[in-house]
UniProtKB/TrEMBL annotation:
Name recorded for this polypeptide: Uncharacterized protein
Keyword terms of this UniProt record: Membrane, Transmembrane, Transmembrane helix
Top-level lineage group: Bacteria
Species this protein is from: Gottfriedia endophytica
Transmembrane annotation, as ranges: 7-24, 30-47
Length: 58
């Protein structure tokens, strides 16, 4: 699998997660905030690792 394809998949997943979070935040505000923070941190770390891996391969 190419690097661009992996990035596209991750961006798509993160957009879907954001959409779900918006849905849940309207449904249950107390539950959504900590989950949103955790997922945002997780996605950020994933993207960090990917950019590090890309730099190593170049």
């Amino acid at each position: 699998m190419s690097h661009k394809l992996k990035l596209m998949i991750i961006y798509t997943i993160s957009v879907l997660i954001c959409a779900l979070l918006i849905y849940f935040s309207t449904y249950n505000k107390l539950l959504a905030s900590p989950i949103a923070v955790l997922i945002a941190i997780g996605v950020g770390k994933l993207l960090e690792k990917l950019t590090e891996n890309k730099k190593e391969t170049e």
